[in-house]
Amino acid sequence: MGILTTILELPIVALLAIWNSFLAILTHLNNRPSTVAHFETDSLTSLLLTSQFFVKPVPPPEGTSFVGKTALITGSNTGLGLATARVLLQHGLSHLIIAVRNVEKGERAKLNLRVEFPGARIDVWEIDMAKFSSVVAFAKRVNSELERLDIAILNAGLIKPDWGLTEDGHEEVFQVNYLSTALLSVLLLPILRSTTRNWDSVARLTVVSSTMGLISRFENRNADPLLKSFDEYDAATKKWNLQDGADRYAVSKLLEMMLVRQLAGAVSSNEVIINAVDPALVKSTGLQDLMPYFPARLIANIMGRLAGRTMVQGAWAYVDAVDGKKEESHGKLVRNWEIEAGHQMMKTEDGKKVEEKLWAETVEELENVAGIKAILGVQQQQSDKKKGAGRA
């Protein structure tokens, strides 16, 4: 009996060993000597244990329907974006925009979906989130060619272990995951607002974040100016490494949470419901690319296969954010089918000041790119504040 018990326990012991190794790798990638005081962050172990072992993924409820609606998903030729497109189409979505950098790959995804859903209209439109000009051109096309846009899921993202700048002069991960996501979010507001006005349904904007954002330490948060600090790197004095890449990815996902809250402050939930979603650990989404060496990548792959949610379950999380959750999720993070505030620092006064500074600099940066202040009503808000101060 003792030998049999030992044999039966071996898979559990192995799983625990792999899990502990996986957590150790992620924790190592996100820990380094710090020059600034730490904000409290969530425990990675607690976050992942809860998501992967104690939360049962919930499919869209019976009766969920997207008939007559139009949805746009960036990065939807593969992975979670494609899986989400399929779930939406399964529930009657009438028009899907596959928004991708590589049109050829997007067309291949479209062909497969057309076989499954011959009654739906499916288009492939080009967008390169590493180029502001591409984002602006894409948004102009959306606003001019579409009659309505009910759902926008900004799923495209970048994980990159080495340093590089875009043609716009920004670090690649920072631009793709944050700046271009902010730009596209704002530029889609006109058609999202008009959809709400013209049809009996509030349009939705969901930004895909990550558990990694909840453990980011945002080391450069006190930099002044703040945005510029993301693009500064002296290759002569320091080599950008995998840990830097992991930190940059994590902080970009935190910035997205802050972005969503700031957008929600500028846009009423009666116009557009804006939220972020964390799908948690999902099989085969590329997290293993952050691992510093082959054994680590192998462990991450095994952990994903053993404990990761399936693509379909990850897609269910997206659909919950764009349909299951209503105005109570406006400006919030949807995670494990619950609504959360986001990173712990976002609950502090100092954290809120950092967020406000980030947003102010972002608005100025993107005003130079595409004149976003008029869409946000920033100039009117500033004028109202001045009038109020004069009356006081």
TrEMBL record:
Q: Which UniProt keywords apply?
A: Membrane, Oxidoreductase, Transmembrane, Transmembrane helix
Transferase found in the keyword field = no
Q: Which residues form a coiled coil?
A: none
Under Pfam families, the record lists: adh_short (PF00106)
A GO molecular function term, named singly, is: oxidoreductase activity
Q: Which residues cross the membrane?
A: 7-29
Name of the protein: NAD(P)-binding protein
